Amino acid sequence: MTTPPGAEGNPSNEPGEPSPGRWSDLGRPPLNANALRRALVRDGGFWTDVALVSRTGSTNSDLVALAADGKAEEGAVLVAEEQNAGRGRLDRQWTAPARSGLFFSVLLKPAEVPVERWGWLPLLAGVATATALSRTAGVDTALKWPNDLLLTVGGEERKVGGILAERAGNDGVVLGMGINVTLREDELPVPTATSLALAGSPATDRDPLLRAVLRSLERWYVDWRAAGGDPATSRLQETYAAGCATLGRTVRAELPGDRSLVGEAVAVDGDGRLVLATGEGVQQPIGAGDIVHLRAEGEK
């Protein structure tokens, strides 16, 4: 994979002159691209390349552009030590100090899967990431539909990471992920955010965390693709539901067109949509929208 234009620093982390500021925060050491490649890119494996840049605008935008130019193949991974134009859903900005988290994108081309099932990919990434963080970082990670990762800190649910899926041409999807690892309280972008460190994780070394997330993503994606994207056969649907903090809650869905809908989240259907049971007794599937967890009466 070709390194994105405009990326700065020493992407390969080869011995020699470091990029400016590379070791400026000893509590946040840089990743090593060569070590990651040796660990993840192997014969018969899914990951085909790992590229690392010190700074870029958005790994998602970069990888979509590389795929469009034929310079990236399925299984390509692009990691940035810092993003200055990272995006979440609805073009919200995602920013964090350099080396304070994991910011990366992967290119997937699920040719064997009907396009109508591709909507499961961000949910699949959520399951894979939550599984990896629970095992590697020792934290109980929950999923908020459709693409947020939550940790409970001080009795409050807070966002530790997010996922963004974008189409890459007619045959690909780029999945972007951001996970706060060592973000400190005074660095939080909003009070509802958190990091692995603030949640008390004993494991904040980004290298094994990234390896664990990518290996988990590989397992879930390969199994889901082999099942033709069937969320039941691949056990994706039941696993997502088991880890989804949204289910069983009263929520407000903020929908396109300045509409909203309040109801109890009762299921995630076969298309990956959130099903709300409204006060009128109607079960309404939601395919897109922002979900707000509402407090139950008497809940602090």
Automatic annotation (TrEMBL):
<protein>
    <recommendedName>
        <fullName>biotin--[biotin carboxyl-carrier protein] ligase</fullName>
        <ecNumber>6.3.4.15</ecNumber>
    </recommendedName>
</protein>
<dbReference type="Pfam" id="PF02237">
    <property type="entry name" value="BPL_C"/>
</dbReference>
<dbReference type="Pfam" id="PF03099">
    <property type="entry name" value="BPL_LplA_LipB"/>
</dbReference>
<dbReference type="InterPro" id="IPR045864">
    <property type="entry name" value="aa-tRNA-synth_II/BPL/LPL"/>
</dbReference>
<dbReference type="InterPro" id="IPR004143">
    <property type="entry name" value="BPL_LPL_catalytic"/>
</dbReference>
<dbReference type="InterPro" id="IPR004408">
    <property type="entry name" value="Biotin_CoA_COase_ligase"/>
</dbReference>
<feature type="domain" description="BPL/LPL catalytic">
    <location>
        <begin position="40"/>
        <end position="225"/>
    </location>
</feature>
<keyword id="KW-0092">Biotin</keyword>
<dbReference type="GO" id="GO:0016874">
    <property type="term" value="F:ligase activity"/>
</dbReference>
<dbReference type="InterPro" id="IPR003142">
    <property type="entry name" value="BPL_C"/>
</dbReference>
<keyword id="KW-0436">Ligase</keyword>
<feature type="region of interest" description="Disordered">
    <location>
        <begin position="1"/>
        <end position="29"/>
    </location>
</feature>
